[in-house]
Amino acid sequence: xxxxxxxxxFKAKGLNEYGIxxxxxxxxxxxxxxxxxxxxxxETSLGMNDNAYVxxxxxxxxxxxxxxxxxxxxxQWTFWSRKQALLDFAKASGRSIGDLxxxxxxxxxxxxxxxxxxxxxLRLATSVLEASNAVLLNFEKPANQSxxxxxxRAEYGQRYYNQFAxxxxxxxxxxxxxxxxxxxxxxxxxxxxxxxxxxDIKGVLWHSTGANNPWLKRYVQPSDNDPNKAxxxxxxxxxxxxxxxxxxxxxxxxxxxxxxxxxxxVTTVQTMPWNYRPWGCGSGRNGSCNTGWIQFEIxxxxxxxxxxxxxxxxxxxxxxxxxxKLYNIDPYGTVRVGNVTVPTIxxxxxxxxxxxxxxxxxVMHWFPKFGKxxxxxxxxxxxxxxxxxxxxxxxxxxxxxxxxxxxxSSMRKGLQDNDAGNWSAEARxxxxxxxxxxxxxTTLDGQPNCMWADFLTREQLxxxxxxxxxxxxxx
Length: 475
What we know:
The protein is of the alpha/beta class. The chain contains 18 helices and 10 strands. The protein has helices at residues 2-12, 17-31, 40-46, 50-59, 80-93, 100-114, 116-124, 128-140, 147-168, 191-195, 229-236, 306-327, 348-353, 374-386, 390-396, 401-413, 425-434, 458-471; strands at residues 183-184, 203-208, 256-260, 266-270, 293-298, 334-337, 340-343, 345-347, 443-444, 447-448. It is flat, with a radius of gyration of 28 Å. Mean pLDDT is 90; it is low at 388-399.
């Protein structure tokens, strides 16, 4: 996988985990970490896909690589002088223009020789956001450098920090959290999105697609008016058949999907709000689990690849654990639907057996081949929820900035009055009599509000000292 190769390369170069994650988040946004990536908008005008472009540049049949203005590679090199340098570097090393290791070497050369300020930040960064912004604003320099873009790229970086830094520390943190949410590609043009309603969430229901196609792009594509359309297409890949579930009439829809991005990484993509009622499992004699259960599809392959299965199974457990934590769902819990007792976590086959879904076998036609079941899934989800880590604590407290701000403001309000200890009475009266302290202009019980127990800023300190200096004839 390119992500591990890239991480390990920059780790060996001495970047810290924040720096690596911030850099990788930007590279992911630019190219999906694909070293053969040709800017999507140029594929039509140039009449070549990624592989054809690389082949034509390598064998010399395409000679306008330097001046065609098309972004290329993991960093989407675009300006002619940088593409010329990249091409010269590839030729000098005897490697393909699309070779990942060649591009990493060239990227390191650029950072070392022309962007030492960025490199220093990547070595010493104390947060993913700091590192990400250094790359975004001073290296990549895209046209859109807004706060929204900064936030999005830092979120991508946080995914890699959680993936690699936590693992290396020996932690067992959940992959998804309040600060590291799954990738979002809302399919607002889909039949389900436009026609469904909101629901009260009771549990999570698993599906698998029943087709040998592990690529997310088969089912998931951004809406035509999505402001992040180009970036999402870069990550997902383009469905040239336009038979994805966002561009055809289909009486089905899920809250998220699990499968491969264009770079081969297995991940989750959210396609509807969690509280939107999915059209997933159909109905049976006792009703339907569509009302109350968040549902996702796992993209199937040929059902024989143990490596792919293990990745999607782990991903399914991760997103389910995240949703259980988000909505306080007990993975071993049950819910009553009419006269039927329904597990909070189940699959489509389970819903059919309970009379709450249509006649499908997923996921039980696949999971037993690799020794898994919905029972093991519930156990593994529970294990994730029971794990503890610094990352989880940070999620619940320090990363909830809005909650922290509210608590901090509430605490300060309790200090912003005239309550004070008797030991300071003489000094306080002197300060008032001399005009050194005047209060904030409001009154409490007819007295100036001096907020005696509140914090003193440097700004306030120098103002008080300046008043005192004037009283002493020194200012």
